[in-house]
Amino acid sequence: MPDLEKEYRDLATADRHIREGEERETHQVDLISELQRAGRSTDDAERLLAALRETLDGWKQHRSQIAQLIDQEESRREDRPAEG
Description:
By secondary structure, this protein is mostly helical. It has one domain. The chain is built from two helices and no strands. The protein has helices spanning about 5-35, 45-80. α1 (about 5-35) runs antiparallel to α2 (about 45-80). The longest helix has about 35 residues, at about 45-80.
């Protein structure tokens, strides 16, 4: 049986990682624009952006798994007959 308190903590951590990842992604897009305006190469910055987006996608998938586990456990607990 999953520990719901732990799962909720994990969900909050995942939310924080996603939020911070999205901030990094925005910063990287802005940096690429600055490099382009300056006529500089964006190859490395674009590779980093692709890696950031891949990581962010993984975090979102992980968050979805945690949320699904919480939903399943809460439903299971609601379906259980009352004890006592």
